[in-house]
Amino acid sequence: MILLIDAGNSRIKWRLQCASKGRVEAEGALVHDDIDRLASLRPQALSAARIVGSNVAGTAVAERIARALGGEHIDWLRPGQQACGVRNLYEHPLQLGADRWAALIGARAVHAYASVVVMAGTATTVDLLSASGDFLGGLILPGVELMQQSLARGTAQLPSASGKFRLQPRCTLDAIRSGCLQAQAGAVERMFRQIATQPDALCLLSGGAADGFAELLDIPLQRIDNLVLHGLAVFAASHPQ
Ligand SMILES: Nc1ncnc2c1ncn2[C@@H]1O[C@H](COP(=O)(O)OP(=O)(O)O)[C@@H](O)[C@H]1O
Ligand SMILES: CC(C)(COP(=O)(O)O)[C@@H](O)C(=O)NCCC(=O)O
Ligand SMILES: [K+]
Hints:
GO terms for molecular function: ATP binding; pantothenate kinase activity. By secondary structure, the protein is of the alpha/beta class.
């Protein structure tokens, strides 16, 4: 058994899976305030052959997770120059978010053709992966919720309540919601244009906020339930302790 942990800026996602067969035994997600509840996983953490995680939420969160799991050692993924068939062309490879690195590794294992890897969470990242496995570069934009909140925070007249998606929004709430969703979908479709003519080009979409704009995307699309955890499992399988 292996315990996988994806610590993002909004939530901690975890998955317990059979290391050899890849069968998922249990999984869940917790907001940061509830990290201590990971303590209920202590027996599994103790009996797991390994705990592998990615963390972009800061060292304090990593420490709280380790404490909740009873001080068990956690292998935190660090982005490198290459792993599992993915080459990292970031100017400073270590600067790349560990979750993006894991997602790229997971994406490569799912689809070994040109792809756009989208993680819609607190932030939305839109990363280009070439057919040969090169991470060519990517976008970071505020996630849907953060975009909406920033309008409420930065203006006098815009509320934070959320409206509905409309192609031609005719009230403030719908205009805000639709604007933020169109911005996400537009960014993804524009990045996809760079690979659109390549064989089997695909957009892989994951993350807690993906539901909001998935149906707006007019490109070949595959939804994946937590690509980061999948990538962590792929990494762990090819990097034994
Ligand atoms: N039940 C939920 N709890 C928290 N966030 C949710 C929930 N359902 C959807 N979301 C959306 O998902 C986002 C968090 O997605 P997630 O992939 O966990 O992000 P991160 O990796 O940044 O922590 C939130 O910003 C919110 O827009
Ligand atoms: C871009 C991110 C904030 C996304 O975080 P998330 O929305 O998954 O919580 C995270 O991957 C990060 O902090 N990255 C480091 C900078 C970079 O990737 O260039
Ligand atoms: K993200």
